[in-house]
Each structure stands twice: as C-alpha cells, then as structure tokens.
Amino acid sequence: MGTAQATGSAMRSQQVPRDDGALGAPTTAEAAPSDTVGFVLQGGGSLCAAQVGALRALTQAGIVPDLIVGSSVGALNGALFAADPGMEGIDRLEALWLGLKRRHVAPISLRTLVRAAVGRGEAAVSSAALQQLLRFRFSAGRLEDAVTPVHVVATDFETGAAVVLSQGDTVSALLASAAFPGLYPPVRVGERLLVDGGVSADTPVLQAEALGATTIYVLPAAVTEERESQAHTAMLAAYRALGQILEERDRLHMAAVRGSVLRLPAVPTPTASLIDFHDTPHMIQAGYSLTRDWLAQHPATRV
C-alpha cells in the first residue's frame, strides 16, 4: 500500500456555534480549502463493526481525514477514532467491538418491551448501560477536544431535521445520535430533544460537504445477505424495506454533493439484527480486506 497522505489546510469554513453545540450556517470569513478530506460513517447498529476494518485499511494507506462526520453508531466509531486517529486507537476500537455483547448496549426487559408495544410511551431499552460504557471511554470528554474534528449527527424529535453537534459533551451527543425511536429514549441536548441521526441523515454526506469536505470517503455499515430461510419473516421484511428507503435517500444525497464521494464496499453478513454481535470478528476482518483491495484497485482515489 502507498503512503500518500491527505493533508488538508487548517483553513476551514467558519460555523456559528449555538448553545447546544450544534453548528449554524457557514460564514464566508474563511474559504474552504481546495482539498479537505472527510470520513462519513454510516449508521447501522452492530453492522457498523465493518467500519473498524475500513478505518484500519484507510489509515494503513496513509489516508488521513481533516474531519469526521458520523450518524448513529457510525458516530460512535467516528468519535472514538477522532480521539486517537492512529493504529493504537484502531486497536482499542477493535478490542471494544470484540468485547461487546447485546447486554452492554441493549439489555431488553420483557416488561418495557411489552409496555412499549402497547403504546405506554416507554422506550424498549434503557440507555443506562450504553451511557456507562461511553462514560468509561470518554471520561470528561468534549467533542471539540478530539484530535481530528468530529461532528455527530442527530435528529430533532419535533421537526425531524438533522442536527449537527460539534461542541459539548461527547457522551450526550453520541447517546442522542444513537437514540433509535422506540428502542432508546430521546436525549435532551441544550433546548432540543434529539433522536437517532439515521432518521434524518443515515449517511451524512451533505453535512460533511457543508462542513467543508471536498473529498468524502463513505464508510458503510455491513449489509445483510438475503437468505431463503429468512425471506418471509415479518421483522426481516420490515428491516429490508427500511434499508431500501434509506439507501435510496442516501443515493439522492450523494448525487447532490458537488465534491468527490467515494463509497467504500459494504461487507455482506448473515446478521439480520442491529443488536446482534455474533458476526463482529468477520465484519471487522472483511471490512479491512474489502477496503484494502478497493484502494489497490482505485489508485486514482488516493488523495
């Protein structure tokens, strides 16, 4: 693999911060650099394990982001990588994923599941376990303190609009970005009540462009393989339908970007649940191998 390195300028479009850490529209005080590399990490629950391997391949190839934008669990990966954007940081991120079990992020209670199903207004899962896990990883951490600028996408519960969080408590931002409606409770950040970023921008390429990225690497979550034995289950059918809707929206968003969008290959997996971690080792290794091979086959994309 080559050692070419993306070296974006320190000059970035200025953003107007709000009290909740979200960014307003760019000002024209500083022009965006001619070549600013952004990593965009798609949401996808446990399927985002594949992004760990992709990050390793990109880093080995000397491709370094000037900014990182993530949605949902992709935001968790992005924030952890932004805090330590090197091989040691990726090693720690991989170790975290390999140790994850469903109880660490989604300790589903039968009582709350039933209450959520009958419309009692409760989330099916408490976010306490996930919050504890994140607090351990981001003790006293703030988004603006990351080594690489990182931006977390969540969704305004009232309006459905995408909200970009670039300042403030890292854990609060990540909990908001991963607060899948009905599964986790909404999270209040400043004056806003926020839910999962995937609702508004599962692959936030438009947000990355607005933040100044001109070359965008999209790190997708793994994709569930179709298996005949699963074809007629209602849950899987609903999941696939949602996936098709999000995929079409992502295509429209990527087509609207004026800069270069490089979507890395997605890892196929038999996993059909966003909280199933059994296939994590395979997804990480396959994410690395597919990305490494893709970079070798597309040398012109190396910036």
Lay out the secondary structure.
Layout: E1 15-17, E2 23-26, E3 37-41, H1 50-60, E4 67-71, H2 73-83, H3 87-98, H4 102-105, H5 110-117, H6 128-137, E5 150-156, E6 162-165, H7 170-177, E7 187-189, E8 192-195, H8 198-201, H9 205-210, E9 215-219, E10 223-224, H10 234-256, E11 260-263, E12 268-269, H11 280-297
Parallel strand pairs: 3-4, 3-9, 4-5, 9-11, 10-12
Antiparallel strand pairs: 1-2, 5-6, 5-8, 7-8
Helix pairs in contact: 1-3, 1-11, 6-7
Protein name: Patatin-like phospholipase family protein
GO molecular function, one term: hydrolase activity
Biased composition (Polar residues): 1-16
List keywords for this structure.
globular, two-stranded antiparallel sheet, 8-stranded mixed sheet, alpha/beta, 303 residues, disordered N terminus
Supply the CATH architecture.
3-Layer(aba) Sandwich
Question: Helices and strands, in N-to-C order?
Answer: EEEHEHHHHHEEHEEHHEEHEEH
What's the story with the biggest beta sheet? 8 strands, mixed
CATH topology: Cytosolic phospholipase A2 catalytic domain
CATH superfamily: Cytosolic phospholipase A2 catalytic domain
Task: Compute the number of structural domains.
Answer: 1
Tell me, briefly, the overall form.
globular
Mean pLDDT: 81
Pfam families: Patatin (PF01734)
Protein name: Patatin-like phospholipase family protein
InterPro entries: Acyl_Trfase/lysoPLipase (IPR016035), NTE (IPR050301), PNPLA_dom (IPR002641)
Organism: Streptomyces adustus
